[in-house]
Design brief:
By secondary structure, this protein is mainly α. A two-stranded antiparallel sheet has the order 1-4. It has a two-stranded antiparallel sheet with strand order 2-3. The longest helix has 25 residues.
């Protein structure tokens, strides 16, 4: 073998090793933050149930990335693009990935999107975790830059609304956006996120007949009874969740895990 051929083979081997280390680094980026818990006022309180009590829990510091979800899919091929039954994910499932089931042009460090609730829940379960409840997510999301209760910081509502309205059509890498007082990144500025009880804000005929606590949400009644009628970003979040079904997979919707 000539010296040139040997050198080319060595460079190729280095490139493969570099790619493997890079992917490992992407996958190993998951980290969780401990949250003390507490009481959180949801946007639509019901008289006598104004505050939701949240027990201590842990939550991912960043949304789950494309690279981390790809590693999950490789271990659980039943969740691969093209393999998931339509009952668990709509046609748009992982639509931004390559046709070969790999990432294609998707940024490995960007939040994975186009994932259904079922796929997100399966990912978290495989990690021994779960999706955060709505109350847990809202408790973390209301943190400001310095205070656990961001509403006590001047300009909090306006800043969150600007982050939501300023999202890029294709989200960039996680962990480079806003950092809140808990040490959690990107709660508002990258994507919407699944929560475990996503249907909790959606009234059905069954829930109405059963006297569901969110009965006030019907026909816009919730907006009049909202805890903070000036919190437009919260209205957007609750309205978005209310329109979701578990099989939905959209380009602006990702997730993170809790435990």
């Amino acid at each position: 073998m000539s010296r040139l051929a040997a050198a080319l083979l060595a460079l190729a081997a280095l490139a493969v090793a570099f790619d493997a280390r890079a992917e490992t680094a992407h996958v190993a980026a998951a980290a969780m933050v401990q949250v003390t818990g507490g009481e959180v006022a949801l946007l639509f309180p019901v008289e006598g149930e104004e505050l939701a009590t949240v027990a201590p829990f842990a939550i991912d510091a960043t949304p789950v990335t494309n690279a981390r979800f790809l590693a999950f899919v490789r271990e659980h091929p039943e969740w691969a693009k093209g393999a998931v039954p339509r009952i668990f994910a709509t046609e748009g499932y992982l639509a931004h990935w390559g046709e070969d089931g790999g990432l294609g042009a998707a940024d490995p460090d960007a939040p994975v999107t186009n994932v259904s609730w079922f796929a997100a829940a399966a990912y978290c379960e495989a990690r021994g975790a779960r999706l955060p409840t709505e109350a847990e997510w809202e408790l973390v999301a209301r943190a400001g830059e310095r205070l656990a209760d961001g509403y006590l910081e001047p300009g909090y509502r306006e800043r969150v609304l600007a982050l939501v309205n300023g999202r890029a059509p294709v989200p960039g890498p996680v962990g480079r956006g806003e950092l809140n007082a808990y040490g959690v990144y990107d709660m508002h500025g990258l994507v919407w996120e699944w929560v475990f009880d996503v249907g909790a804000a959606l009234n059905t005929a069954d829930s109405r007949s059963a006297g569901d606590r969110r009965l006030q949400l019907l026909c816009g009644g919730g907006s009049a009874g909202a805890a903070d009628t000036s919190d437009y970003a919260a209205f957007l979040r609750y309205a978005f969740r209310s329109g979701l079904s578990g099989d939905y997979a959209g380009g602006g919707l990702g997730f993170r895990c809790a435990s």
